[in-house]
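Can't paste images in this forum, so I'm doing it all in text. The chain is below; anyone willing to post the predicted C-alpha cells underneath?
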Amino acid sequence: MNTYFIVAGSLVIGTVLVHCIRGGRHVVAPMLATTELNDTVKTVLYGCWHAFTLLYLAVAAGFYWAAGDASALSLAYLGTGASALLAIISATVIIRFKQRFLRLPHWLMFSLVAGAGMMGLVE
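Text version of the structure:
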C-alpha cells in the first residue's frame, strides 16, 4: 500500500470539497448572478466548473487505485503531472492578474497533491 498516494488522493478530495463549497459560494454564485456576463459565457464557465470537479475526482480515484495496485502506477503519474501543471497554471494566472496568493489557495492545494504524488512515485 502506497501511503503517499492515499495522501494525494485525500488531498484531491479536500481540494474538490473546497472547490465545491467555498468556490460555489464565493465564485459560482456571484458569477451566475452577475448581469455583466451573457448567458452563453455563464453556461460555458459553469460547465467548465463542473467538468473540473469530475475530472479532479477521477484523479483522486487514480491515486487511490495506484495506492493498492502497482499495475495502475500510470494513473499516479498522470495525477501527479496534472496536479503539477494545475499548480503552475494557477500561479501563473494569479501573477498575471495581480491577485494575492493567499486569497486564491488552489495553487497551494495542487502543489501539495503533486508533492505527495511525487513522494509516492519515488517510494
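The mean pLDDT is 97. The chain is about 85% helix and 0% strand.
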